[in-house]
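Here comes an entry:

___
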Amino acid sequence: MNGGQSIFDQLRSLFGKSKETKKPATPLPVPSKPKQPASGPASGHPSQQATSPPPVSATPPVRNRPQPGTAPEIDLILGIDFGTSCTKVVIGDHGWLGQSYAVPVGNGGDGLEYFLRPTQISVGRKSETNLKMRLMADPASIKIQDLVTLYLADVIRDSLKWFSSEGPRRYADRKPVWSLNLGFPAKQIAEGPLVNAYRKIADLAARLGFSELSLDLASLSSLKDNPEADSSRRSIPSARIALYPEIAAQLAGYVNSPYRAQGNLILVDVGAGTLDVSTAILHGNDEEDVVSFHFCEVGLFGAMKLLEARMAALETAVPGSVQIRLDDFQSGTKPTPESVALILGHQGQVARESNDAFNTVSKDFAERSILLAISCASQFRKLQRDVHSNPAFDPWPGQVRFFFTGGGSRLSFYQKHFIDGPFEQQLSKFTRWKETEGDRRLHQQGLRLEPLPAPDDLQGLPADLAADFDRLSVAHGLAYGSENLMKITASVHS
């Protein structure tokens, strides 16, 4: 991948749409044990959502039918969303059956936890946590690179094992040709220490994950010291390993789904570490669909960053008062504490200094989070006005589709500020919308919250977890292949 590529260069090889007439493939078996929504950030979702239209099934015609004594090759893509709290994996086959498969990489548990792999690894007797944020903070650290490599190699190996033993039987007489798409936490793939670290990690993890070597530091060291001379013998050559912006992958499934609607859209994704904002326009004609990405930003305003800021403020106000550990909530499988009492670890009386510190840091964090989103959205609207010949043109006369996703979006803090009014109220200052929320609703103006619907091609996700598809949406987008291209246009201001 060439250095300095923008998000739009990456999108050209990520988004796709097949125009062939399709028929349903054999669905992936759903785990038999009962599923309950995961607690905390993994459960619950905004209730003010539009109802999705009925699904439209579509699958490309089967090609490359096996001949006696042969094993036809098929392209399969590992889409890995390496998250701050947990990692998600989807395997994509968009060249033969037109399907993708949610991989149950979780360490047990019910419901959504079955598909969420905590981003932590045990090395000896020590549990290493917060891998992604540590890598982002110090990408040159060999120790952190090695830990992330071992972790992702384990994820890859478990994904391959699951697919070979429990995947659809139709692949039994096929020879997979694997590719790896790994999500990257920025709006573009620009040369730098973090990109270099991600590329090195992805390459080593693919080699180790596909090998029969033990998953430990000794094996990793041996692999570094003895690189394969013939790269063609590798299961995934370097040319088939790519990094893609997570904020781009987030919308890949939507723009390829029958639920997509033309027009403006804003997406805010709240992860454990970052808050990602994307703006785009979907348009086209009878011949092709076009997705125009404009302003996209990534800020360190995720759920764990909020908890970390609150813990630091409380500890500063009353030293020794915080009784919980940030690492206890990194996996995303425990409810993130949102009150002063829960963060302090007791239900007794809370000192006034603690309440004041909590309220102050929460207000500051909210203002900076909303400012990031407002900056993106307002520049997006201004650009649309500036390029129009009519100065009176209003690009947002009514409602604008708004997607609010990610594990952190379930927290009441983000619900309060992005769903219940403040974000829309501040954004209205840059529009011609009515001043009050009541008047905006009366005139059908403002943000129209919509779900990110589970796509028809995704197999293996139980129906009762469809509302939580947004947790897998980045991995699903990463599992798209370059053979399924949409036309991508980019704003010169991005």
In short: The first strand starts at residue 73 and ends at 81. Confidence is low (pLDDT under 50) at residues 15-64, 485-494. The CA atoms of residues 318 and 354 lie 7 Å apart.
